[in-house]
Prior knowledge:
The protein is of the alpha/beta class. It folds into three domains: 10-289 and 337-361, Glycosidases (TIM Barrel, Alpha-Beta Barrel); 405-575, Methane Monooxygenase Hydroxylase, Chain G, domain 1 (Up-down Bundle); 598-618 and 628-777, Aminopeptidase. The protein contains 24 helices and 15 strands. The strands form two sheets. Strands 1-2-3-4-5-6-7-8 form an eight-stranded parallel barrel. Helix 14 runs antiparallel to helix 15 (496-524) and helix 21 (628-645) runs antiparallel to helix 22. InterPro entries: GH, Glycosyl_Hydrolase_84, O-GlcNAcase_cat.
Amino acid sequence: MVVIEEKPFRCGVVEGFYGRPWTCGQRKELFNRMHRSTMNTYIYAPKDDIKHRALWRQPYTKEEEMKLKDLIDAASAEEILFVYAISPGLDVTFSSAADISALKRKMKQVSKLGCKAFALLFDDINPTLKPADAAVYSSSAEAQAMLTNELFEHMKSQQFLFCPTEYCKTRALPTVRKSEYLNTLGQKLHPDIDVMWTGDKVIPEVITKESIKELGEVLQRKPVIWDNIHANDYDQRRVFLGGYHGRPVELYPYLNGILTNPNCEFEANFIAIHTLGTWCRIANSVQDSSSFDVQMVDLSDEVCVTPPETPVVPDVPEVDCEMSDELLPSLTAADVTSVIASYNYSEALKLALEEWLIEFNLNKKAPLKSYSKRNLKTQVINGQSVLTAKSYDLDVIGTAKETIETMKEDKSKLMALSHENLQLLTEMFCLPYEHGTKGNQLLSDFEWLLENVSDIYEEPPSKEKVSKWFEKLLQCDEKSQEVYNLFTNFSKIPNEAILYDLYPYIWDVKEVVSALESYVHWLSDSIACNLSIDTIKRSHNGLNIAINKLPIMNEFVEPWHIRYIGGLTGALHRMLPFQGGYIYLGQAPDIPTSAVLKTRSYSPSDKDSLYRFNRGVVDKSEVPMETTEDDIAFDYDIGVFSSFNSKTLFLIEDDEKELCGYVAAVSDNKQFVDHITDKWLPEVNTKYSETKTDRKLPHVDKPDEWKAPNSSHFILKLDSKVYEECILKRVINTVLSVLKTSGATTVYHKLDGVTNQDFFLELGFFPVQGDEKMFWRSL
């Protein structure tokens, strides 16, 4: 039987992820946002705060106390309950009087700073008891319960939370109902202590009323959901910008609260917080009321964003919903009716997008001009915790009213980033188990093009099939351009805090889309590619695409399964025939740039621009009449490749269509050498019969393995704007995909004065014995 407790429903945020913790300034901004969303609880539990977890016994210094008190006071000012959590489970001895005293001292120290609520966390630990504890306690559950009860009684706190080791259904042994661990907690843990739970899995798609009812009966109390739906600390390529989803409002009576453990990137959590706040307000009103009065609600300005086509939680009867937060802007009656009648995912997301777009216009500095999740190792300096690390507080942190006024003032300052851009952003980085509508469309279009590319290689060709394929290619180009537009517009926003938090993700997907688009366009020229249908089918119906379509029915599968890893970016990347892995998705530039560099095949009309580039001339007016020496240089450097196969001579262009680099690739070295000696060299000798030249062809005098069957190679020439390693990796990824599809199994590259050995070693290349500048790798 579930114990019905008269407790306030806890709606809020738990900072419980692995990775760089938020700054004190960001937490203050969080409290302000939570207050505006009528949330009431924040749990301080960053896994990488060493004094929260690894060095939990150590007391805080005076300086750390001051920072903690400042945070506790800031939370209180916004009517947010600050819950201090501690995680001693890595090495605590439950029967040790010294360890128990250390925990009491630590909690008392924080209590004196004004903290009134605490949490004890035993997640992600080895539950096996030490010999000393096994002599005292019958199980880890009993040991944890007894320790928690003692601390609860010692602190005399009305708000105390507990995170169990079996914190989800898949970790309950053998089942939730039969788990000795959970049943022991239900019997021995003080009834006033709340127990946190993530759902059926660590990150469940849905949380059902039936599962929570069962858990409540076992725990003999209503649980608090620690919701990981927006957590992204397990995948460096994913961020979750979709709305709160998969938790029906019917859960509300069976819970004591819902706390979201969101993205590592602070600014990425606006929608997660906003939509959870909407969910809690609606669920509360469903619980408390049976009538609805539009005049009682004051939400936000008229909304004009088109909602994404995503699943909607079933409707519930129209109810009364009163919101007392005067800080939220007003909403039209029609909008209120559509949202408040039930929790509708699309409508809740629509409201959040409208509010979030305003944030992009704020002139806000980044707390730390680096990307937060690309290096998850915590640096410990002189044993200091994150509270004493160098402060990078936000420049824009004011009172709630000041923030709202700033928003209203900046709303009139239009920027390039549009509602459509923002909607595309949320649909490419939606939720752990799903992409938004536009993300799915982009993925399915590329999949269709690759799976059906053999249609344009058929002999005789089918006019209908060819027309359909190229029509789909045009649609895919349009969708790709939307991604480029989003990237360019986003890169120019004045809010640096948002820019640095989201830029690496948008950069990644832009780079993958660019690589795929370049590759597909190369495939589209079936005559120049000269590939057999068997080769085409073998390259594009393999495991790489099949993984993206792998049906997932296993209730134990989490979003770090290969089917989901990398999200949309990973799914698109897996479609490239060359499977080089994430090492070919380099980190975004340290300083964000809005430039979009594209790669395409050479055409005869490119000769003049390529001629100028090869001479190192940028200004067209500086190019004199062609000289014989310049012609010879051009033919030897570039002409030899374009005469063999111009479609594997790739040009790199910037936004202004200016050439800034090229990669010349050869799919069969033996055929290339034969072409030089049998055809190209005689033609060049005839062309320059009256000119003496000392130039030698470096391509002919190569070792036997270089000329072996299925061996390929590439050379490259770049200007400074291209030689960002992250850009170069994407270009090479495209080129290696082309070479692999063309039948090559090995690729060679000779270092020049620009590229370096370490770069190619990182990409999986190996030095050729006897030639320190020649490298190779398998495809």
